Every structure is written in C-alpha cells, then in structure tokens.
Amino acid sequence: MRISVVIPALNEAGNIGRLVAETYEHVPAAMLAEVIVVDDASTDATGEEVRALMAAGGYPGLRYLRHGVRSGQSTALRSGITAATSPVIATMDGDGQNDPRDIPKLVARLAAPGSEGPALVNGWRTSRKDTGSKRWASKAANWIRDAVLKDDCPDTGCGIKAYWREAFLRLPFFTSMHRYLPALFQTYGHKVAYVPVNDRPRQAGVSKYNNLNRALVGLYDLVGVTWIRKRTKVPAVTEGFVSSKEELGHN
Fold first, then answer.
1. Looking at the domain assignment, is residue 241 inside a domain?
2. Residue 241: is it exposed, middle or buried by C-beta count within 10 angstroms (0-12/13-18/19+)?
3. Does residue 238 sit within a domain?
4. Considering the entire predicted model, what is its pTM?
5. Is the residue at 38 inside a domain?
6. 131 pLDDT more than 60
7. Residue 250 falls within a domain, yes or no?
8. Tens of pLDDT along 194-214?
9. CB < 8 Å & 24+ apart, contacts of 143-150
10. Where are the beta strands (DSSP E) in 76-129?
11. What does the alpha-carbon distance between residue 136 and residue 81 come to, in Å, rounded to a whole number?
C-alpha cells in the first residue's frame, strides 16, 4: 500500500530534519508516496530544516505546510491528512522519538482500505525512554481512559500510527482528538490493532506538554469522548436493493 506520512511539528529544529531523512532511508520507496511536515507556527528553524532538505533534493514527495497561527497537534494532523494524496496515512510526532523503521510493520498489520481487518494500527511503546514522571503519568492516564472507554489500548498517546485516511476524515474533530483515535475508530465501527514499537530519547528541544496540563485537558476530553461513544450508532447494513433502470423510467 502506498502511504502518506504526516508529521506535525512545533519548534522541532534539531529533530525534524533528521526524522524526515530517516523516514526516506527506512521506509521503502515503493511504499512511500509522500512525507508531509505540518509546521504549527513554529518560532524556531523547523521550517528552514525542512526547506533545506527540499532544496538539497533526494526527497521525492516531501511537502511542507505551515499554519499561520498555532492550532495544536490534532489540527496539524488534520491539515496534513486533508492534503494527503494516499488512502493510507502513517503519522509520527515531530520530536524524533518515534522510529520510522516501525512504519512498515504497522502498515503490514493494517487492512486494505474498505476491507475486513484493522482500519487503525496504533503503536505501543513497551519500553519508553521518557522521564519517570511522564512514564507514570502516561500509565495512569491509560488506565483511567481504558477503564472508562474500554478501548483496550495500552498506549493511546503513542504518536506513530497507521490508518485509513477516509475513516479519519469521517470522525468528529476536536483538539486533542489524536489521543483518542483507537476509541473513535471503534465507535465508528472499525477494528483496531496494537503493535509494539521502538521509543527513543529526545535529542533536541523540549516537550510541549507537562503532566498537569495534559491531565486537565485529558479529563475534559474524556467526558466528551464518553458522550460521543454513548450517543453514536453505526449499525451494519444487512440488506440493500437497487431499482433497475426500467423501473426508474430510464431508457
């Protein structure tokens, strides 16, 4: 399957250029249709790093989009996915902690769009390289979320994922939705799968989240996603008939 890789980035100079180069090195050319970096109004050299790669050549299909105003990671993802040309999307965080070598493994587990099988494959960082406080906060958040939503996702915050573009664009959009994709895909009748992936330490810059603001926003969003799951009905269509042209009065 040909894929579009979408990478949201905010002030990731020192990380984004390396990550893009690694993506082209480790994702087979026959699989990789394009890489779209969505710059969420960075104030550092994030854009310059990407444009330097484009000027140097050797990165076919590399695209750079920039928001005029900072709008958040989920909005950056939506901008990139809307612009993408492939029916399959792979995403990574712009900080370089996700490993592009895992993308082919996720795509291999993904079903072809419209067929039976997983419409989303979520990475699972079994050995995180973050600080102890962030690891414990993530474990607590995953436990609370799973207890409420019962999506059986061990690591919903993992940024490396592969999924059907059309299925994503049909989901209700809200900021921070990227942390609830497994539950949202399930709510809309899709199967999901989870695959262990590598996690790497950040090489440059600083995280854009802290435990307190992530917890407060997470609790707020959890209420909303719980409401969506309870109020959404997606029944299977078991019968369908089409009138013939003669019955419709057509020649």
1. no
2. exposed
3. no
4. 0.86
5. yes
6. no
7. no
8. 999 999 999 998 876 655 566
9. 144/222, 145/180, 145/183, 145/218, 145/222, 148/222, 148/226, 149/180, 149/183, 149/222, 149/225, 149/226, 149/229
10. 88-91, 118-125
11. 31
Nearest Cα neighbor of 93 from 183, 19, 26 is 19
pLDDT bin (cut points 50, 70, 90) of residue 245 is: low
In whole angstroms, give the CA distance from residue 179 to residue 175: 9
Neighbours of 189 (CB within 10 A): 13
DSSP 106: H
| 73-77, 167-171, 223-227: least confident range | 223-227
DSSP labels for 201-232?
---SS--S--HHHHHHHHHHHHHHHHHHHHH-
Neighbours of 127 (CB within 10 A): 9
Specify the amino acid at residue 11.
Answer: N
Residue 70 domain boundaries = 3-231
Residue 244 DSSP class:
-
Kindly report the CATH number assigned to the domain that includes residue 69.
Answer: 3.90.550.10
Distance, CA of 13 to CA of 87 (rounded, Å): 29
Given this model, what pLDDT does residue 75 score?
Answer: 97
Measured distance CA(45)–CA(15) in Å, rounded:
10
Residue 98, both tokens: 């996700």
Domain count, the chain: 1
Q: How far apart are CA 29 and CA 35, in angstroms?
A: 11
Specify whether the CB–CB gap between 175 and 72 falls below 8 A: yes
Question: Mean pLDDT over residues 85-97, rounded?
Answer: 97
